[in-house]
Amino acid sequence: WRRRWFRWLVGSSAPPGAPPSIAYFKNEQDTVPKGQVLLRDVRDVLESPDVADAPTSHALALRLSIEGGRLFIMSAESAADHQMWLREIRRALREYLPLDSLPPRLRIQVESTAVPAEM
Fold it and tell me: For residue 44, how far is the Cα from the chain centroid?
C-alpha cells in the first residue's frame, strides 16, 4: 500500500477547461499531483470491506475500476470517511457526467444514491 491524499478537481476547484477528476498526491502538502482519475474513465465504484492487506484495521475500502483495466483501492481511516467518499464519488459522477455515458452497472449505482429534490 502507498499512502496518498486525494483532492477533488471539479467545478471551481478544477483548472479552467479541465475535465472533472480526483487528483492524488504523495503527501498532504504537495501541490503537484502524482496522478489523477478522470471521472469520465470510472467504470465501477464498489464498497470492498474485505480487501486483504488494507492499511487500516477496519479495512474500509472503495474500489474504483477505471477504463483500460486500472484499479484504484482507496482505504478510508473511518467509517464516516468511507461513506463520505462513496457518496461524493457517486454524486460527482451524477453531477458532472451525462448518465447515459456511464456503463449500466455504474449508472444504477449513481441513480440509486440520488437525493430527491427538496420541496
Answer: 10
